[in-house]
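INFO  loader      accepted 1 record
INFO  loader      residues=535
INFO  predictor   begin
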Amino acid sequence: MSSVLLTRDGWLFKVNDKCFKVMDDLFSTDFDVKFAEILGVEVKNAWIIKNQLIENYWPASLDEWRNLFPGVVGEDGTVKLLILTLATLKLRNPEERLMGVIVEASNSAGKSHIIKEILKPLRPLNIVFEFTRMTGAFLERKFQNENVDRKILYLQESNNAPAQLHLILSEGKLHIGLVERNDGGLKPTEIVVEGQPFLVITTSNWTGSQDLVHRCIVVNLDESREQTLRILAHQVKLNSDPVFSELFTLFCNGCMKIFKILWQKIPENIDVVVPFLPLLEQKIQSLPNINIKLRRDFRKLISLIKASAILFYKNRIMAVREKNYAKNTIIIATLEDLRNVLELIDSGMRQVLTSLGEKELQVLKTMAEAKQEFYNYSELARLTGLPSSTLRLVIIPRLENKGYVLVDRESRPHRIELVREDFENPKLYIEEEQAEKFIKDCIQELSLIGYSFTLPEKTSENGLNHEKKPQERVVVETTQDLGFSDKNKLKESFSEKNLEKSSDSKNKPVERVVCTTTHDLSFFFENNPQNGEIS
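INFO  predictor   done
INFO  writer      dumping tokens
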């Protein structure tokens, strides 16, 4: 039994009775030689074993997806959120995708570095367009008569963006009528740009339209003393240990290649259903700060839950139906996808649920803990470690607009008063039994309109992907009823009719095992807790 797991400092291999960790590029010939020496086999056999493990590899957790970017020091929550945001590009419906991400931080905080690391695996796919500055006229003419759907537009250190960019993000189309000089005369011209791109912006002080902020996920980088020390320690290691520096560079390059492979394996134009959303709605209704902005932000939350289901589609039930010569696939999200998103509240999701960014929250917590009646910008800068100019021009005005502070501008210096302290994490966790019922009902409803179901692939107890045979992904064809009543018939059908046939050495491996007597899928919920699903 063999498996591979990605850790922060290398690949952990388990091959038969050998267990070892390596920091290297798995695709290099030098690694094949090392791998052969460790296993005690010929290089060509080691190459076969390695390729089989890579082919079967899939991250078992969001932490493991994050580990694919070792070049980013710290910022775990930010990396996870960026990966989830990008994964929404795989959704079929453009209205369900997130429109982009805005990364805010002070100068020299590493905004460009983290974005370049995240986008590096996608550049060879020719979907990333990077600009230092972009005008509206350039956008119109650069992509004239082209489809920019799912293309990534990266604007470096931008404090504003052209109105045309807002339009194409929201409408999915630009249709411009203008007059241009042609052959000495004026000629009416139409410019059409189709599709919905994905926007990535790094900024130290966004002064552009807030409407663009509302359409994207806003991420604040970690500017704490602890993060600075982590970066310094990593830089010292890279520049003082040449052996580590060489291996780390190879490791980063190999992880980039793996991410590119995984990205290409994720299905395109996929649909995701979140059966337990009514339960989440009930929780959100209890939040104290419900306003019109929540209409859009709730859609962001749903999109991220769907993104998690896409990243782990191999461990999710998938509903499949062919109609009018077209195949439609729906991934059924689980509570694990909600947990993945809620764990990121302090890394950007808080702004979706409470409209508070990380730095805004830091200021509010500092004011609440200090318990002073009034503050000024210098005092808050000393207490929070944030620049006084950032507090004066950005953070305090935002908190004032949201009703958390009052600023007396008649006094010198300005006096800032905390007037609201309801900024704690929202409690949105859902009971598993309730969610399980909604998921079962969803499966039953889909079965009634002709969907069959592909069950999750088998994994080990610790979530590692083993040497999976092609027939380990099971398709359940539903004819009449998924009433969850007759477990034994379904199990017998798997074990006796299909698994017996697939074990016949004369038969070629099949891609899927089809069960034709389907009255129950509840065994999935009760007997497969190792998949990380609802138990």
